[in-house]
Model the fold of this input.
Amino acid sequence: MAGTASTPNKTSTGHAADSHGTGGFPPFNPDTFSSQLIWFAIAFSALYLLLKRMALPRIASVIDERRDRIVRDLDAAERLKGETEKALSGYEQALADAKGKASGIAKEAQAKLMADVEREKTSVDTQIAAKITEAETRIASMKSRALAQVNDIATETAGAIVAQLGGGQVSADEIRRALMPTAGE
Amino acid sequence: MAAGADGGHSPIAQFELKTLVPLKVMGIDASFTNSGLFMMMATGLVVAFLMMAMSGRALVPTRVQSVAEMIYEFIATTVRENVGEQGMKFFPLVFALFIFVLVLNLMGMVPGGFTVTSHIIITAAMAFLVIGIVLVYGIATHGLSFFKLFVPDVPAWLLPIMVPIEVISFISRPISLSVRLFANMLAGHIALKIFAGFVGTLFFAGAWKLLAPLPLALTVGLTALEFLVAGLQAYVFAVLTCIYLNDAVHGGHH
Done:
């Protein structure tokens, strides 16, 4: 600093800081303090007031609004999730009910069907049994008739044989007794 | 250096105040200088930027809006962490100090610009503003028990030593706060100017021309460093302001 032409420029007006005259090291030149302080006070208080009244509340309101919105949206999402879960559990309940009902109906239908089959079977069995009995009766009667006819034929044949052998006329009862000694008993 | 030039080569010429509009108020010099101009420009720039950035008030911020919101959240977090929720009443002050220092530091990085914060009177004004608020608010809320700040929790026989130390440390706060910022900006800009001057000096010194790229590279590096310092010192100023405000809010018992 001492190298340059240091004119003793400590003017009383305070306009020492021109391009040439260096009244010492500029940051330590007390002549400039008052103007710097005054303009600092003006600029900084203007900045402070503008920030406090206008800029910062605006930023704060935007940030708050965003935070509120996010909280609100998260709440809504939570609520919708709960509703979805409720609907899902309702659906599952309905499904389980329907399944239970369906299996009940199926069981009932099966039971009814089994009963029908059983009843049908019984009636058919009865009918068959009746038919069998009837058939057996008929067979028995036919058999006895056939047997009776066999006796008659045998008697006639025996009579004819006796007559042919020359034994004369033998009564049918005699022949019958001779043929079937046990028949009369 | 070169006496033929208009002082532009002197590393301290950049700190000189140039009177733009001479003014005198009640016998006191209130001239509008380049310092005043840069301070008014800083205020204008900050307010214009923030208002422009927030004009959309968008829920999903634009890039500019998120920059404004990031600075806001950054300072808000700093205040909350260092002072607590009660400290938020000082948030506009801390924000104003931070952004003012930051913008003035950065404006000083513009070639041909003026670094307002390289003048001790400005940094001292801010530092004493902070300490003044700490004292006034601290005494207003805690009364005389605010001065328990100077009585640390030590055995009684140590107090005659400790109390003066605490008092000195409290008094040195505004000094360290102002000198730190002032010295950082001043030294950085002087170093930058000197190394940048070497580039020209070497370039016009015959064969030494070949060495000129060395200080040029250094100047580039220093410029990057100065940008870092510009941001860092603004942050340091804001953090220390918060720490001092913490004493005012919470009194001597911490």
Chain A has one domain: 35-179. Residues 30 and 120 of chain A are 128 Å apart (CA to CA). Chain A touches chain B through 49 residues (CB under 8 Å).
